[in-house]
Specification:
Layout: E1 22-29, E2 44-47, E3 53-56, E4 70-75, E5 82-84, H1 93-109, E6 123-130, E7 137-143, H2 151-161, E8 165-172, E9 184-189, E10 194-198, E11 201-205, H3 215-229, E12 236-240, H4 246-253, E13 258-263, H5 266-278, E14 284-288, H6 291-300, E15 308-312, H7 321-330, E16 334-339, H8 342-354, E17 357-365, E18 375-382, H9 401-410
Parallel strand pairs: 7-8, 12-13, 12-15, 13-14, 15-16
Antiparallel strand pairs: 1-4, 1-6, 2-3, 4-5, 6-7, 8-9, 10-11, 16-18, 17-18
Pfam families: tRNA_U5-meth_tr
Family: Belongs to the class I-like SAM-binding methyltransferase superfamily. RNA M5U methyltransferase family.
Active site: 340, 340 (nucleophile)
């Protein structure tokens, strides 16, 4: 077992309310009320008395809906039962206003919500992202069909109700699935992305980019992860599962000689490359490829970057055995593993320990206050002896974060010298079932 000394105090949040900058809300017909006559309710547009556009429905179209006919909110845990909610203590308040405004427009204009049992209706979800620093708002409306009648009028009305909105995107998903987003998109209003500032860098965020939902705690998370990476200016950093390149670009600015980011989502890689250019960062490159395949090819190559540090932030399901085997073969000096699922993280860390690594520090970060979820950072190093990690155990709370970072950069980053601990720092986590998909 890893000694308790390796597990550091959790890094909490000072103002843990309305922090969630990404809000996803389904729309569904109330039981027995949804018409569900087809994929979408036909809508025509004509000028009203003030010269504005408004919807006009013919007699054969669905009857006008009321707010009570359309449910929006959250699913009950482990079910497809939608619990209506108009307020939430952790969701961004502007995002929630957008969600409710869409429901009201749907009701007024007779736009049918999606019925997942029948496969009918038009509006499936809304995904709203709000820039923490910029205040810019991206709205993605997920529809059960390509045609969006009166889309221009819809965008004007939605932007009138919530003036903070800067862009609106239609995402088309006609599959019978609980996956929220489809592959086809078109920009209805604005540039199709928003900008936000994180750790002093500006980031472009599109509808399918990965971007942490709590920007305040993300800065805490990234500060700690970069501190534990112990960058001296000589290292190549692989940012695996990089998304829009956020932590990799922070590493590029804070001591990495170069950064290579890899992710399977092509749109996220485009955002990462744009983010690098926008911030004037020239020592970072990004690859649109499956992370496991990338690591296998790099491990088989004759050109292995040294010294190497691996940053990895996989999805909830964790990494793959092939990825971890390739990572061990590349023999990075340090592996900094960030995870939103400590169970799959423990499984993967056990694999790395068997491959010759030892856990130095485990640092939980309260990324999701008022929930049972936690983000966890584990820093591992190749197994060796006779160096102290006292400074690595110093956290950013209870002392200067900058001082902690400098002590790692300038001091030894090696193996534990303590004797009296159990045999090394191998981890033997309990065998837990796989985490269900959220």
């Amino acid at each position: 077992m890893a000694p308790v000394e390796a597990v550091q105090p959790i890094l909490g949040m000072d103002e843990p309310f309305h922090y969630r900058n990404k809000v996803i809300s389904p729309y569904a017909p109330a039981k027995g009320r949804g018409k569900g006559k087809g994929r979408q309710t036909p809508v025509k547009v004509a000028p009203d008395g003030a010269g504005r556009s408004k919807p006009v429905k013919s007699a054969k179209d669905a009857a006008k809906l009321g707010r009570a006919d359309i449910l929006t909110g959250m699913y009950e845990t482990g079910s497809h039962r939608l619990i209506p909610t108009d307020t939430c203590a952790i969701e961004n308040e502007v995002a929630k206003r957008v969600i409710l405004a869409i429901r009201d427009i749907m009701a007024r204009w007779g736009m049918e919500p999606y019925d997942e049992d029948a496969g009918t209706g038009f509006v499936r979800h809304a995904v709203v992202r709000v820039g923490h620093e910029s205040g810019e708002v991206l709205v993605t409306v997920v529809t059960n069909g390509d045609e969006f009648p009166a889309s221009k009028a819809f965008c004007r009305e939605l932007a009138r109700r919530v003036p903070a909105i800067t862009t609106i995107v239609q995402n088309v998903n006609t599959r019978a699935t609980n996956v929220i987003l489809g592959e086809k998109e078109r920009v209805l209003y604005g540039p199709g992305f928003i900008l936000d500032t994180l750790c002093g860098l500006s980031f472009r965020i599109s509808s399918q980019s990965f971007y942490q939902v709590n920007a305040t705690q993300t800065e805490v998370l990234y500060d700690e992860a970069i501190r534990l990476a112990g960058l001296t200016g000589a290292e190549t950093v692989i940012d695996a599962y990089c998304g829009a390149g956020t932590i990799g670009l922070v590493a590029a600015k804070r001591g990495a000689a170069r950064v290579i980011g890899v992710d399977s989502v092509a749109a996220a890689i485009r955002d990462a490359a744009n983010n690098a250019r926008h911030n004037g960062i020239e020592n970072a490159a990004f690859v649109a490829q499956d992370a496991t395949q990338f690591m296998k090819e790099l491990a088989a190559s004759d050109e292995r970057p040294e010294p190497l540090v691996l940053l990895m932030d996989p999805p909830r399901a964790g990494s793959t055995p092939a990825f971890l085997e390739a990572a061990a073969a590349l023999a990075p000096e340090r592996i900094v593993y960030i995870s939103c699922n400590p169970r799959t993280q423990a499984r993967d860390v056990r694999h790395l320990v068997k491959a010759g690594y030892e856990v130095r520090v485990v640092r939980p970060v309260d990324m999701f206050p008022h929930t049972d979820h936690v983000e966890s950072i584990v820093m591992l190093e190749k197994r060796c002896e006779n160096l102290s990690t006292t400074e690595l155990r110093r956290g950013p709370r209870g002392g200067s974060r900058q001082a902690s970072s400098e002590s790692v950069r300038n001091g030894p980053v090696g193996c534990f010298a303590e004797r009296g601990l159990s045999e090394g720092l191998g981890i033997t986590p309990r065998s837990d079932p796989e985490e269900p998909q959220q």
